[in-house]
Amino acid sequence: MDEIEVRLVKLEPMRIICFNGFGKEPESLAYSKMIAWAKAKGLFTDGKEHRFFGYNNPDPTPGSPNYGYDVWVSVDETIQPDGEARLIEFTSGLYAVTRCEVHNPWEDIPAAWKKLVNWVEHSKYRCTTHLCLEEHIGVETLEGGEFTLDLFLPIVE
Predict the structure, then answer these.
(1) pLDDT tens figures, 38-52
(2) Which of 27, 42, 103, 108 is spaced 20 to 30 A from 134 at the CA atom?
(3) What is the C-alpha to C-alpha distance for residues 126 and 117, in angstroms, rounded to an integer?
(4) Average pLDDT across the chain, whole number
(5) CATH T-level fold of 7-156
(6) What is the pLDDT of residue 144?
(7) What digits encode the pLDDT tens for the residues 115-127?
(8) CB neighbourhood size of 153 (10 A)
(9) From CA 72, how far away is CA 17, in angstroms rounded?
(10) Nearest residue to 41 (alpha-carbon basis) of 6, 83, 7
(11) pLDDT interval class at 145 (50, 70, 90)
């Protein structure tokens, strides 16, 4: 089995603004919407910590090149949704987390997810039903190029 570094993380409740993209490459569409909105709101320069997550919604289906992807940005109570932005109150959850350095998204991300699932299957934990999340590390890389993700696989003991 390939070695993988995994940490256990309890995500605390967060107030989230969400954008959806749908199509052959929905991640870039969803991130483009979120980045434009966040820049207009001053979120990249407000001095506050914002976290950026994404996940498939809806998942890919056999026979179709199209699927959806939701992008989240964490915000405080002073930020209100408008336009396509949706407000989500994330409750919390326990996750197995691993870091993924992404050079080729179509290879690196699925390979890292596979290793993380394999790690959970051979641990005392089991997968559960809350969302699998991909956290984008570093706001400076949101607009393309190589980037880093933390993959969050929901677990229970």
Answers:
(1) 999 999 999 999 999
(2) 42
(3) 9
(4) 93
(5) Multidrug-efflux Transporter 1 Regulator Bmrr; Chain A (3.20.80)
(6) 66
(7) 999 999 999 999 9
(8) 21
(9) 6
(10) 83
(11) confident
User: What DSSP string runs through 40-102?
Assistant: HHTTTTSS----EEEEESSPP-TT-S-EEEEEEEE--TT----TT-EEEEE--EEEEEEEEEE
Give 3's pLDDT tier (boundaries 50, 70, 90).
confident
Radius of gyration of the chain (CA): 16
Closest by CA position to 12, among listed 120, 73, 90: 90
Give the count of alpha carbons within 13 A of 145, CB side only. Answer: 7
User: What's the rounded Cα separation, in Å, for the pair 66 and 60?
Assistant: 7
3-class DSSP assignment, residue 148: strand
Q: How many angstroms separate the CA atoms of 121 and 105, rounded?
A: 24
Cα separation of 107 and 134, whole Å? 15
- Residue-range domain boundaries for the chain: 7-156
